Amino acid sequence: MYSQGLIGADSRTEETEEFLAAFQARIDAEEKIEPTDPMPQGYRRTLIRQIGQHAHSEIVGMLPEGNWITRAPSLKRILALLAKVQDEGGHGLYLYSAAETLGVTREQMTEELHAGKAKYSSIFNYPALSWADMGAIGWLVDGAAIMNQVALCRCSYGPYARAMIRVCAEESFHQRQGYEIMLTLCNGTKEQKEMAQDALNRFWWPALMMFGPHDGDSAHSEQSMKWKIKRFSNDALREKFINATVPQAEFLGLTVPDPDLEWNEEKGGYEHGDINWDEFWRVVKGDGVMNRERVQMRKDAWDNGAWVREAALAHAQKRAAKIAAE
Ligand code: BYC
Q1: Which helix (H) or strand (E) holds 262?
Q2: Which GO biological process annotations does it have (predicted)?
């Protein structure tokens, strides 16, 4: 299989100082690294980890919203939500394909997710309790995802950077549909506005956690930024997100649930309260409210879909045999 060949190519390439310096020079010159280019094992491993986690986040991320499709309040809302959830499935597929160019198979990545070995975004381990959560997820979760992914469009690895361009275009539609749900609720009855405020209260802090641990606790940031996989640090993106989102909350007439949030004129940005990092690590390590249920749903979908994969394979084999016999 070609992917095995790629891994082999790395292990044959001795990582001499000259090799590493030449690779870094390509990165510094803003050249894109392509699948068949020689690359350090660490660069390959980092990308497989990050792209794999990103793909899993898209696929697991379909679950909280998928659950609301039949309960959306109008035909228009059903159509928009259905389209959004389908887009997320598509994003997962581009990302699994991008990771496959690095020599890992989709089956391996799926097995790791099901075994609880591969991570996915912490945000999807929180429940979606009300219709307003569909607004908050689109507005805040997709809003945070875009803030991170716009930077990834300039990632040094070509297939990942190119996948991100399409993903970002679709995410901006997702963000707008979420904000529009919030706007409708905030211009509605007192109960609807309270529902929107409640969703903001529950999703604000988990959305900030999506950007990852503080820079000081981020194991991979320094090397990933040197390799231009990441272009901004976790804290820098989190601050950009807060600065962009607080005025949007004000426009909705909602209160951001952070009493310490304060504009700092000097730095031209907001100061914010402490993030509950104990909660973050608990959720990342598998002990959030929804972790077990989310992984079980993915396992069930995989098992229940086995017949589809088998049928597709049998059909392809039959066609190939027919063509060969012609
Ligand atoms: N959740 O050294 P660090 C979306 C892990 S969803 C879970 O800073 P890195 C969407 C991290 O993996 C958005 N784990 O790591 C879909 C590492 O653990 P390992 C998905 C987290 O990689 C549907 C450890 O903590 N977006 O689009 O340099 C509907 C130390 O962290 C989290 C992406 O995945 C977290 N929040 O930076 C709506 C973007 N944060 O691997 C929306 C691509 C950290 O050593 N990924 N960890 O065991 C990235 O940009 C980076 O991987 C991160 C973390 C900024 C997330």
Answers
A1: strand 262-264
A2: phenylacetate catabolic process
The number of the ligand 1 atom at minimal distance from the alpha carbon of 121 is 1
What is the structure's pLDDT at 4?
40
Residue 10 has pLDDT above 80, yes or no: no
**Residue 210 identity (one-letter amino acid):** M
**At which residue do the structure tokens 């598509």 appear?**
90
13-36 average pLDDT score: 95
N residues, the chain:
326
Orientation angle between helical segments 234-252 and 142-152, nearest 10 degrees? 140
How many Å apart are CA 59 and CA 96, to the nearest integer?
10
| Residue 147 and residue 207 in contact, taking contact as beta carbons nearer than 8 Å | no
Tokens 């939500």, residue? 81
Burial (Cβ within 10 Å: 0-12, 13-18, ≥19) of residue 1: exposed
Q: Which residue segments constitute the domains of the chain, with CATH numbers given?
A: 2-288 (1.20.1260.10)
Its sign, for the CA torsion 229, 280, 259, 245, is: positive
Interatomic CA distance for residues 218 and 226, integer angstroms? 14
Please give the C-alpha separations between residue 133 and each of 21, 81, 171, 212, in angstroms, as whole numbers. Answer: 48, 12, 17, 22
φ, ψ dihedrals at 157, nearest 5°: -90, 115
Which residues does ligand 1 sit against, CB inside 6 Å? 49-50, 53-54, 57-58, 61, 88, 119, 121-122, 141-142, 145, 148, 209-213, 218-221, 224, 230, 234, 284
Ligand 1 pocket, mutate which of 43, 57, 94 (most atoms under 8 A from CB): 57
Q: Measure the CA–CA gap between 253 and 193, rounded to whole angstroms.
A: 9
The C-alpha angle 175, 210, 83, rounded to 5 degrees, equals: 30
What is the pLDDT averaged over residues 179-200?
98
What is the CA 13 to chain-centroid distance, rounded?
Answer: 32
